[in-house]
């Protein structure tokens, strides 16, 4: 059962890689087309004002916010022997919701759709952590 816990981590790493790749597929042509010198976007404030399409960049940053707690949760579950069916289910639920969130943000980017999926993913993550904390406590 413990090995099942690693596949959600692999799926999240794959998502991060895909968004990273998308970022460069969008960013480099925009820089070439609009003749943006790389030094002009050396700081995030500059990037935010110069680039027209920041969806992939915004999503890539987001993949290092709540997902960090997800990865840590998987480590805690594995280390404490809590990699049971419920934990694996919650891990996969989080992954599916994060993939959906990225799909929305990197394509049509409707904020309320993205927010609903983001919120659902956060609730799943907090449930995962509550379950882990309970398991550690008892």
TrEMBL record:
It comes from Arenimonas oryziterrae DSM 21050 = YC6267. One of its GO terms (cellular component) is membrane. The chain crosses the membrane at residues 6-25, 68-95, 115-137. The keyword Transmembrane applies. Keywords: Membrane, Transmembrane, Transmembrane helix. The keyword Transport does not apply. SUPFAM superfamilies: MAPEG domain-like. It is found in: Membrane. Its main location: membrane. It comes from the Bacteria. This is MAPEG family protein.
């Amino acid at each position: 059962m413990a090995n099942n816990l690693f596949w959600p981590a692999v799926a999240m790493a794959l998502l991060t890689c895909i968004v990273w790749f998308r970022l460069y597929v969008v960013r480099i042509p925009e820089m070439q087309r609009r003749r943006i010198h790389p030094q002009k976007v050396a700081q995030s404030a500059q990037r935010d004002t110069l680039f027209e399409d920041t969806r992939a960049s915004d999503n890539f940053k987001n993949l290092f916010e709540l997902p960090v707690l997800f990865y840590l949760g998987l480590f805690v579950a594995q280390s404490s022997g809590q990699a049971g069916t419920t934990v694996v289910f919650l891990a996969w639920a989080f992954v599916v919701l994060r993939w959906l969130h990225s799909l929305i943000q990197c394509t049509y980017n409707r904020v309320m759709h993205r927010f609903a999926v983001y919120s659902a993913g956060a609730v799943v993550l907090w449930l995962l952590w509550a379950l882990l904390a309970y398991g550690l406590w008892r």
